[in-house]
Amino acid sequence: MRPSDLIAASVKREREQAGLSLSALASKSGLSKSTLSQIETGQGNPNIDTLWSLANALNVPFSFLFEAAVPDNELIRAGQGVAVTDDALLFSTTLLSKCPTHRRRDLYRTTLKPNELKQSAPHPTGTIEHVFICTGTVELGPIGATEQLFPGDYYRFSADVAHIYKTQSDESTLLVVMEAAG
Description:
Layout: H1 3-17, H2 22-29, H3 33-40, H4 48-58, E1 83-86, E2 91-97, E3 105-112, E4 117-120, E5 128-135, E6 138-142, E7 147-149, E8 154-158, E9 163-167, E10 172-179
Antiparallel strand pairs: 1-2, 2-3, 3-10, 4-9, 5-8, 5-10, 6-7, 6-9
Helix pairs in contact: 2-3
């Protein structure tokens, strides 16, 4: 299945579960109805910011927008997995583990290109990010409370406020766990 087909089915499913029309979701997310229609038919190519806007408008974790059934055991080798990229920002993120329904956490392998600054809007209330630096040096955290992290460092912070990821070195790889309240 192509990533665009997976996203299309997931966005439509979440919109319908929320009881929203295309027009209502467009209004809530700040996206046009035609953009949403293209996404839901698999003809759109949404960037990360668009997907975050949809996730926030639907009040669901980001990963719900490209959710598929997974087997009990799953191995994802480096460079594999469903990646969501933003070529303009040289940013990509790959969902490694989606949270089961009785838990609320998602696991991502995130890659930042050299000299990249990724600004993130606040996630739903109560969201916490856990970040482990695998390679590179990164400044990250809530705006006004960022920390510089090196390989092996871990940082937990409230992600329901605006926050940033800024590389301080060559390409950086991070392990990011998104934990939602409830």
